[in-house]
From TrEMBL:
It comes from Paraburkholderia tropica. Signal peptide: none annotated. InterPro entries: LysR-type_TF_proteobact-type, LysR_HTH_N, LysR_subst-bd, WH-like_DNA-bd_sf, WH_DNA-bd_sf. PANTHER family: HTH-TYPE TRANSCRIPTIONAL REGULATOR, HTH-TYPE TRANSCRIPTIONAL REGULATOR TRPI. This is LysR family transcriptional regulator.
């Protein structure tokens, strides 16, 4: 008679969560998200037709029957590991690092540099999802969250890694058509806006002491990366964050027609849940971000 076995991934998630008493800690050990552990446990509960955990406020607790079940299957995983080890060392399995990051930052700064991290740490697989939700509002337990700051969120450790300022940028071709010698020359140009950052141009014009300047036209986009792309394409002039346009300035896709004024801006920071602050993957990724951020700042100042 063929043995009847439950889904093995679900069984592994149950064993880890029951042994550790936490879906989050089980997720860290298995290199998946807490949501994946919860889904596997739910699948096993449906397969068995009985609950396995009592969901409490900030933790989970095995039911009495599930504790007996765990005591019986726990040693089996150790036996399986020992039996497998006799056939040689297992291949290294990539460890997943889940990152939640801002969309424009991801597109224009993080993605072009990720190959460096992968080359240095081929055993860590980075999974990036974009969002602008605050850390405490995210449903899944990400390993690293990249947001503006510095801000304080209960249960999260914050570290800044990249600073920036904002100043006008445009394509070289645009300047050939209509030069910009002084800020007042902006009257002949199209100013590019982002709907979520409506104060950028008014604040800069006020700093330049021409708050009443009326441009030839304005164009507004709903995402900041579209505003920057429109500047690269020569449609108009955008307020460029120095960190996110540094590569374009270096490559000549964009130019900064004025040395100043420069608007101060929030830093980019990593936010990590307290229980993950000492995770090796998190430490390596944070240290890499800080090195890259420092190199970007020196490049802008050089």
């Amino acid at each position: 008679m063929k043995p009847v076995l439950p889904p093995l991934n679900a069984l592994r998630a149950f064993e880890a969560a029951g042994r550790l008493g936490s879906f989050k800690e089980a997720a860290a050990e298995l290199h998946v998200t807490p949501g994946a552990v919860s889904q596997h446990v739910r699948l096993l509960e449906e397969w068995l037709g009985a609950p396995l955990f009592e969901r409490l406020n900030r933790r989970v607790q095995l039911t009495p029957a599930a504790q007996v079940y765990l005591d019986e299957i726990g040693p089996l995983f150790e036996q399986l590991s020992q039996a497998t080890a006799k056939y040689g060392a297992p291949r290294a399995v990539p460890r997943t690092l889940t990152v939640s990051s801002l969309a424009t930052f991801t597109l224009r700064w993080l993605v072009p540099r990720l190959a460096k991290f992968r080359a240095a740490h081929p055993d860590i697989e980075v999974k990036v999802e974009t969002s602008n939700e605050p850390p405490e509002s995210l449903k899944d337990g990400y390993d690293v969250i990249i947001r503006g700051g510095p801000d304080t969120f209960y249960g999260y450790a914050m570290r800044p890694f990249l600073t920036e300022e904002r100043l006008p940028v445009c394509s070289p071709a645009l300047l050939q058509r209509a030069p910009l010698r002084t800020p007042g020359d902006l009257r002949a140009h199209t100013l590019l806006h982002t709907s979520s950052l409506p104060r950028l141009w008014p604040d800069w014009l006020a700093s330049a002491q021409i708050p009443a300047l009326a441009p030839a036209a304005t164009l507004t986009f709903d995402h900041f990366y579209l505003t920057l792309q429109a500047a690269i394409d020569g449609i108009g002039i955008a307020m460029g964050p120095t960190a996110l346009v540094a590569d374009d300035l270096a490559a000549g896709r964009l130019v900064a027609p004025f040395a100043g004024p420069r608007l101060p801006s929030r830093s980019y920071c990593t936010y990590v849940a307290d229980e993950k602050a000492n995770d090796e993957r998190v430490l390596l990724f944070r240290a890499w971000l800080e090195r890259e951020g420092s190199a970007s700042s020196m490049g802008r100042n050089g």
